[in-house]
Amino acid sequence: MRERNSRELAGLLGAELTGDGDVPIGPDVVIDSRAVTPGCLFVAMPGVRVDGHDFAAAAVEAGAAAVLVSREVPVGVPQLVVADPALALARLATAVVADATASGLVTIGITGSSGKTSTKDLLAQVLATVGETVAPVGSFNNEIGVPLTATRVGPTTRYLVSEMGARGIGHIGWLCRIVPPQVGVVVNIGHAHLGEFGSVETIAQAKGELVEALPASGWAVLNADDEQVRTMAGRTSARLAAFGVDAEPDFGELRVWASDVQADLLERARFRLHAAGAAFGEAVVELQVTGRHQVGNALAAAAVALTQGLSLAQVATGLTQAVARSHWRMELTARPDGLLVVNDAYNANPDSMQAALQTLACLRQPDGRLLAVLGDMLELGDGAAAAHRDIGALAARLGVDHLIAVGDFAADLVAGASADGLHAQIAADREQAAELAAAWLRPPDVVLVKASRGLALEHVAELLLADLTGTPGEG
């Protein structure tokens, strides 16, 4: 945000100001006392496990110029006292975005059941080749992450890319009121959070709130290969752009697709990028990220960039140069001895688990074997046990040589795998999973580590990478 004094900021947020009203604040806004920069605003977020108010003094000592709080704390800087710091943060973000939009900022929202973080990372790197771009690090896609990212917008920012997640109907609509999108991307509709939503149709209803929020002058970028996403064309007044793998979409003012998709030994896709309609032509893209499923994410990013006037050559170059930015998402690391570790432990649902296992199957090295260390896919509701059995069976059908399962649904993963002839075993915890994996693996094997965030299975990948190197590997 642009620098404001404490009196101006208090008026903007409707806050009660205690302390000097002329103190300059900004440009940074933080919620973590470890991320404080000189002159920043520290927002004391209340939480279940920790309360930001307890860290306000440490934030001030580190250089925060003011604190946004729900109750006064013993610090010697201006305090902006509000009923709800989270809502005040959202109000600040809305003001920052409104100011910047009036000066030409383009706001882009991305949602989907899986792949939205990878799409966001690819898109941000493409757009950054032509203008200053702000995008979240990792998956800052909720009611805190979206506004916090928006406060990073400054006077020279040209693009703001917001990743938008949902846990229920109305969530994305609310995020769109904080950061009104001019371009909205729906990557796909899958089974993530099925237990909370109840049905895929309800998930689609929630995700479609993004395209409903678009202005008529904006762009809705839709996955033509996903029937639930295709139908969203009727829910928006915005201009339509469609992307699809293998075939030209049959709708959209702008149509983007791929052909001649191939992959190298590390499953990095090379393909011919095509565009027709509002932009046209073709160019070759050679992705640096792992997994053929990344082609669809790259096409979504390409479609957005083309709506913003980038040439096909600029888009292809940007995609070819883009690297994996967010940790624990198909993060492939080769140990010095030749063992490959695929750390995809940030999150999991049936769709992303399928994509990861398919990638694992394609990564098999000559004379090497495949190991899957899998944990629970959370928030799937009544169908969770069956979904885990299906994933175990899929691992067997794809030719995985061994499976180690962790978590409450480990027995279901093992049951599904064993029924199709795959040898599988249950680990009591992450540490035992790492021990079992280390004992089984030998170069040039490949191991995939994947589960929902709550299981923190990245610890297994880190232990395996430290097995020979002494320190965790870096992707």
Could you give the topology of this structure?
Layout: E1 4-5, H1 6-13, E2 16-18, E3 24-25, E4 29-30, E5 41-43, H2 56-62, E6 66-69, E7 79-81, H3 85-102, E8 106-111, H4 116-127, E9 133-134, H5 145-150, E10 159-163, H6 171-178, E11 183-186, H7 194-197, H8 200-207, H9 209-212, E12 219-223, H10 227-230, E13 239-245, E14 254-263, E15 268-277, E16 281-290, H11 294-307, H12 312-321, E17 331-334, E18 340-343, H13 350-362, E19 370-375, H14 384-397, E20 402-406, H15 410-419, E21 424-427, H16 430-440, E22 446-450, H17 458-469
Parallel strand pairs: 4-5, 5-6, 6-7, 8-10, 8-11, 9-10, 11-12, 12-13, 13-14, 18-22, 19-20, 19-22, 20-21
Antiparallel strand pairs: 1-3, 2-7, 14-15, 15-16, 17-18
Helix pairs in contact: 4-11, 4-12, 11-12, 13-14, 14-15, 16-17
Overview of this structure, please?
The chain has 475 residues and is α/β, with parallel strands linked by helices. It has three domains: 4-83, Udp-n-acetylmuramoylalanyl-d-glutamate--2,6- Diaminopimelate Ligase, Chain: A, domain 1, CATH 3.40.1390; 88-321, UDP-N-acetylmuramoyl-L-alanine:D-glutamate ligase (3-Layer(aba) Sandwich); 331-469, Mur ligase, C-terminal domain (Protein-Tyrosine Phosphatase, Chain A, Alpha-Beta Complex), CATH 3.90.190. The chain is 34% helix and 22% strand. It is built from 17 helices and 22 strands. Helix 4 (116-127) packs across helix 11 and helix 11 (294-307) packs across helix 12 (312-321). It is globular and about 70 Å long.
